[in-house]
Specification:
It is built from four helices and twelve strands, in the order ααβββββββββββαβα. It has helices at 2-22, 52-55, 208-217, 231-235; strands at residues 64-70, 77-86, 89-99, 105-106, 116-117, 119-122, 126-128, 139-141, 162-164, 191-194, 204-206, 225-230. The longest helix is centred in the N-terminal third of the chain and has 21 residues, at 2-22.
């Protein structure tokens, strides 16, 4: 009888051991997979000292910006800087001293106010008295650009080379086309042109070498624009 009990106990222990061996193993938990994310494209690094209001008006496809930095709201002196976009960054290419309207700048330009308009404007057409120096923009040569001879002699060569600023004008026409879509009171005929050493009626003026460089460099395929104004106007 005692031997039967011992055999039963032994069998129970053996069955328990077998049952334990047969139990499924618990595999260690695998670490959760990390979510995959795509890095957003780098936002363009803005043209220096240009605020959000004007920056948003620079077309997305523009790769060339002529920035005109006025010395002050009532100053005729300024600096022109050409920026070229490479990837997500605007890189400073060249710069020149310049002049703007004799009385400075305005956000509401009117005919005869002697102030240059603050804003962002496309650059699509060029021309002048002299032969095309190799302009990439469509170029119209005509003696009709010549400054009147009753002007001071220092102004006679102002329009040897010009690039139209597309303020109140029809793009795709010669710079001296007189059409004013917004009406005569808003003025027009505002250009980049050659400098005579002082303020202008509303245009921006640069040296002959600067104008030649811009004419040969501004490329319609890069959709060039001018961003122009005094410090406060540009930063607002």
């Amino acid at each position: 009888m005692a031997s039967d009990v011992r055999r039963a106990v032994a069998c129970g222990i053996l069955l328990a051991a077998l049952a334990a061996c047969a139990s499924p193993r618990t595999e260690p938990a695998k670490p959760a997979a990390r979510p995959t994310t795509t890095a957003p494209a780098a936002a363009p690094i803005g043209v220096p000292d240009i605020g959000d209001r004007l920056r948003r008006r620079i077309p997305d496809d523009s790769r060339q910006v002529v920035a005109v930095y006025g010395d002050g709201r009532n100053s005729p002196d300024s600096t022109v800087v050409l920026y070229t976009r490479h990837g997500s960054a605007w890189e400073r290419t060249r710069s020149w001293p310049a002049h703007n309207g004799k009385k400075g700048w305005t956000t509401d330009h009117r005919e005869g106010d002697k102030r240059s308009p603050v804003g962002v404007f496309t650059l699509t057409d060029a021309g002048g008295v002299l032969a095309d120096p190799g302009s990439r923009l469509p170029y119209t040569r005509s003696a009709a650009f010549a400054a009147p001879r009753w002007w001071a002699e220092s102004h006679w060569h102002d329009f040897d080379f010009v690039i139209a600023i597309d303020y109140n004008r029809v793009r795709g026409t010669p710079p001296n086309d007189p059409t004013r879509p917004g009406g005569e009171a808003k003025g027009g005929g505002i250009w980049l042109h050659m400098d005579h050493g002082s303020g202008t009626s509303a245009c921006v003026s640069l040296s002959r070498s600067a104008m030649r460089y811009l004419l040969r460099t501004l490329d319609p395929d890069r959709h060039p624009v001018v961003v122009m104004g005094d410090g406060d106007g540009l930063a607002s």
